[in-house]
Automatic annotation (TrEMBL):
<feature type="signal peptide">
    <location>
        <begin position="1"/>
        <end position="28"/>
    </location>
</feature>
<keyword id="KW-0732">Signal</keyword>
<protein>
    <submittedName>
        <fullName>Uncharacterized protein</fullName>
    </submittedName>
</protein>
Length: 548
């Protein structure tokens, strides 16, 4: 679909007419030369997906490599972009009672009685198994909104109430996780008696896998016999195929099993009046969509921008037409180079995205850290401008002046010029929309000012002579702006674009300082642009990018 945010896309090529006026030639002192040097700002946003890299030293290693290539480490800013989010979810007894789904586990030849909320009752922060009606088979609750949970840490308290409890003959209780449905899941359980319950464990605690309703013990160990007032703090850590269970702070069980990689969680009690669960909390990790990742970086004004994605696998968002439209719009409008540090698994996808990103980016094999880091630094260095214009500077762009010979840049006092031999006269009205004159205009100074923070023309003096060049021009960037109106019809979009661009230094001229524009448009899946203004009618059902 045609999205309104495509108006963010500005691939700007503006030619300025008459911007700098006429320069009056004046004989310069050939012994003093002025040059403008660029101070590039480099912003690197690092997104880490599925990778085996240890990134502890990434920033220092990258800066060291760039320093070897002549780029000051002080100009490099590396920021981490979160590709995963941690969700902490705590469920109290009242919330479970109201919003979780109740269920019965059919096992041991017992038929399920009608499940009622009277099977459990609330006491403070505890959800306690009651003695109302049949206590067999096992019954409990699970969270119906938790089935997308992957890596997670489950924490809860299990125990026997000190005052409301029944005989300790046949009790069993379990916490379910990575639950696919009521017949497929992992469970941590504590058992008090053999020959009954969901499994015949003969007492103890265990990690079990339930597949199509069939229980299999993966690991087990001893557990104290149930008693009134019993209280056990349990933590289950499920990370990839690794499952670890801690009881009261000590590791009790550990298995490696990859049958289920994600799923819901819940609990049950079999035949034990007074058994309870409380303080259930889940800290889980979920992978963010790349459309979320691309929104995070904070780019400095005028910086060279690189999004470095350390990912071994294919990223689903990059192959989705609507999601990739937003990703491309943000990268193109912010002039971001995409660097995919990946493997042969996702190389084709990275190269396809780079092509659609106006060929700004590169694929780098990440199998060898040192080699990949060197290639990354080479690519960044190749994209950075380090030589300034001879006379023209853009306001707020990082540049500085250098003097040849360098000894004449500072401490230039003489008997004839006790305050110094440098003087700069600032014409703040040379361009339209001036912002005032610099404070040191027309004053003799011992040191040459190296930066300029106001637009206009600056005439330089060194003693009674002009250095070369005599004039420097500080101007502002043109402003690219337009309005977009899209009306959806049955078969086509009706599109109306109105240009509102201007050059603040020549805003009141007939063409607002803009002598030429280059409009382009394309479908988001295309790798080449169509020249010209986007057509006034385009078919619905497709995503488009356009800009100028």
């Amino acid at each position: 679909m045609f999205r309104k945010w495509i108006s963010l896309l500005l691939s700007l090529t503006l030619a300025l007419t008459g911007l700098f006026g006429t320069i009056t030639p004046v004989l310069a002192d050939e012994n003093v030369q002025i040059s403008i040097k660029a101070d590039p700002k480099i912003d690197v946003a690092l997104a880490v997906g599925n990778s085996s890299w240890n990134l502890k030293n990434f920033t220092n290693d990258l800066k060291s490599q760039l320093t070897l290539k002549g780029i000051s480490s002080s100009s490099v800013n590396v920021q981490s972009v979160e590709t995963k989010s941690v969700v902490a979810d705590a469920s109290n007894a009242s919330l479970i009672f109201q919003s979780w789904k109740n269920f019965s586990i059919l096992s041991g030849g017992y038929n399920a009685p009608a499940w009622t909320t009277s099977d459990y009752f609330i006491s403070g922060d505890r959800l306690i198994r009651s003695n109302s009606g049949a206590t067999r088979p096992a019954s409990g609750y699970y969270d119906p909104k938790s089935f997308e949970t992957t890596n997670a840490t489950y924490s809860f308290t299990w125990g026997i109430d000190a005052t409301s409890y029944g005989a300790f003959d046949h009790g069993e209780a379990g916490f379910l996780f990575r639950m696919q449905d009521e017949n497929n899941y992992y469970a941590y359980l504590v058992d008090n008696h053999s020959a009954c319950g969901n499994i015949f464990l003969d007492g103890g605690e265990a990690i079990v896998r339930v597949k199509n309703g069939t229980f299999e013990v993966l690991a087990s160990t001893s557990f104290p016999q149930y008693y009134a007032g019993q209280k056990e703090d349990i933590k289950i850590v499920a990370e990839g195929s690794s499952i670890k269970v801690y009881r009261n702070g000590s590791l009790r069980l550990s298995v490696d099993d990859g049958t289920y990689t994600k799923g819901g969680h819940g609990f049950y009690v079999w035949d034990q009046y007074g058994a309870y669960f409380s303080n259930i909390s889940v800290e889980s990790e979920s992978t963010k969509k790349f459309t979320e990742v691309i929104r995070q970086p904070i780019w400095r004004e005028g910086s060279n921008r690189f999004l470095v994605n350390l990912e071994n696998n294919v990223v689903s968002d990059l192959d989705d037409a609507q999601a990739s439209a937003e990703i491309l719009t943000r990268m193109i409008s912010n002039e971001v180079s995409y660097v995919g540090l990946g493997t042969t698994t996702n190389q084709t996808q990275v190269e396809r995205l780079v092509a659609r990103n106006n060929s700004n980016g590169i694929f780098i094999d990440n199998s060898v850290y040192s080699s990949a880091m060197d290639q990354l630094a080479d690519y960044i260095a190749s994209k950075v401008r380090r030589v300034g214009n001879e006379q023209y500077m853009i306001l707020d762009e990082d540049n500085h002046l250098e003097v040849n010979p360098s000894s004449l840049q500072q401490n230039t006092q003489t008997a004839d010029h006790p305050e110094g031999r440098w003087k700069i006269e600032h014409d703040s009205t040379y361009f339209e929309n001036g912002s005032g004159q610099v404070q040191w205009s027309g004053k003799w100074q011992k040191d040459l000012p190296l930066t300029f923070d106001k637009p206009g023309r600056y005439e330089l003096w060194f003693g009674s002579e002009h250095p070369n060049p005599q004039f420097l021009y500080v101007h502002r960037r043109p402003v690219a702006d337009f309005t977009l109106k899209v009306t959806k019809g049955s078969a086509n979009y009706s599109i109306d674009v109105k240009d509102q661009s201007y050059d603040p230094d020549k805003e009141f001229s007939s063409n607002k300082g803009i002598s030429q524009m280059e409009w382009k448009w394309r479908e988001t899946t295309a790798t080449t642009w169509n020249d010209g203004l986007i057509p006034s009618n385009l078919p619905v059902g497709k995503d488009y990018l356009f800009g100028f």
